[in-house]
Amino acid sequence: MKQLVNAPGQVVTEALQGMALAYPDLIRVHDNPHYIVRADAPKNGKVALVSGGGSGHEPMHGGFVGLGMLDAACPGAVFTSPTPDQIQEASAAVHGGKGVLHIVKNYTGDVLNFQMAAELLQSDGVEVRAVIMDDDVAVKDSLYTAGRRGVGATVLAEKICGGAAEAGASLNEVAALCSSVNASARSMGLALGPCTNPETGQASFTLGENEIEFGIGIHGEPGRQRIPLQPADTLTEMLMLPILEDLPFKKRDEVLLFVNGLGATPLVEQYIVYRAAEMVATKHGLKVSRRLVGSYMTSLDMAGISITLLRLDETMRQYWDAPVRTPALRWGL
Amino acid sequence: MKYSLNFLNQWIVCAEQQFKAHLAELNALDAAIGDGDHGSNLARGFTKVVEKLQADKPATPAALLKLVGMTLISSVGGASGPLYGTFFLEAAKVAGDQLQLDDAGLALCLQAGLAGIQRLGKAEPGDKTMVDALSPAVSVLNKQVGLEMAAQKAREGRDATIPMIAHKGRASYLGERAIGHADPGATSASLLFDCLAKP
């Protein structure tokens, strides 16, 4: 696999240095430990939003740092959660006196590290709340698994909660809104091929020539089953139906439809999937009122897509529309 | 037997060497049922630990175990960082201020470490995790049968994870597809006990 890498051990550090140079007006990058904060942090009197996770999902989360979205992001090694001291330092750096909300994707490592960081922060007198995102319907949520994974809804929650925090909502209000977004969103994805970790050089899995992984996770972890490749419309409908059934979404629900590229799938294919997804949603009686298409939560160089459907209420719609100015999402300003 | 500061140092240096030597194997086991970086993460963490031990030269077993735990938590990431970090931190809490540990003291430390891992990770034996290697190894320590027997129990525990379905961590998403692969956490835990037996 050909990759634009200098040294495997420097992948995250050099990528962060590049981000710092590319967005000097929006973000500041801290080295040792790694974290990204908005250029004007800390914002006094505003709830601070902090997220993080393994690197390799860019632009998530560092690309969502800025006005109207995250105050800080903590990137771990590739596909490895950040560490408690890193999360603690980032949170302390952006704490503006109104508490810190941790938005955590439901992976064992992320949950454990954020939990330890919250304990450290609380012992320093910082008020911390955490919301665990788990919107992936591909995974069975049961006592016998680590629970559903956090995927596409995380991007939507960071935007919507960022809008609320910017508007002056309290920590409890922002946390409740985040939980509500998580509870109202469902996602599922598929992969056409594996991703290659630039730190190890290893492909995450192997697929047959005409095989796809249905229900893929964002680290290349398998989902429901391997099936033969089929036309985009068929596969899109196969992703949409379990999403629709799970919440369940009902006729006349107002929704945000998010088609997300996993890294190597070009926009032209994402638009084909978006077309099919909106047709399925409309056929189901949903009112699609907000949309997002693009590669926002990636899995390195994985080819594939995920679809997220969020049932909107007026508050969510208002904060989705609110201004945002980050490296990866910008509107209203 | 008495376990000196030097013994504990050698244990950790051995662990670093073992994780580096088995880096590719641990990554491959992790790739089969997780995300393929368990070896890289542990090698990175234990390299940091050995650097710290050489720089700080802790004066008691408790200080050494604490330094190992803190360094793992701040350098490994993933689930294994907090879990192994907690193992050493909890062991440090019961190590007292003696300059060396006896058999009972070492057993107490490792029991406390295992209890910490189980409290944090909520894993039970049979969940296909590091607990499957640690638990049988720690439980024979009380029986004064020697560290080699404990290491053997850890290896048996590791092998016992091969036919298991995982109930914790990323491997739990696989269901029956996890069957046939040894758990990477149980494998690294058995390497840790191999080093304890022959540091």
Automatic annotation (TrEMBL), chain A:
The keyword Kinase applies. It comes from the Bacteria. Residues 7-331 form the DhaK domain. Coiled coil: none annotated. Keywords: Kinase, Transferase. GO terms for molecular function: phosphoenolpyruvate-glycerone phosphotransferase activity. Its EC number is 2.7.1.121. InterPro entries: DhaK_1, DhaK_dom, Dihydroxyacetone_Kinase. PANTHER family: TRIOKINASE/FMN CYCLASE (PTHR28629), TRIOKINASE_FMN CYCLASE (PTHR28629:SF4). NCBIfam families: dhaK1. This is Dihydroxyacetone kinase subunit DhaK. It comes from Acidithiobacillus sulfurivorans. The lineage of its organism: Bacteria, Pseudomonadati, Pseudomonadota, Acidithiobacillia, Acidithiobacillales.
UniProtKB/TrEMBL annotation, chain B:
Keywords: Kinase, Transferase. SUPFAM superfamilies: DhaL-like (SSF101473). GO terms for molecular function: kinase activity. PROSITE patterns: DHAL. The keyword Kinase applies. InterPro entries: DhaK_L_YcgS (IPR012737), DhaL_dom (IPR004007), DhaL_dom_sf (IPR036117), Dihydroxyacetone_Kinase (IPR050861). The keyword Membrane does not apply. Residues 6-198 form the DhaL domain. Pfam families: Dak2 (PF02734). This is Dihydroxyacetone kinase subunit L. It comes from Acidithiobacillus sulfurivorans.
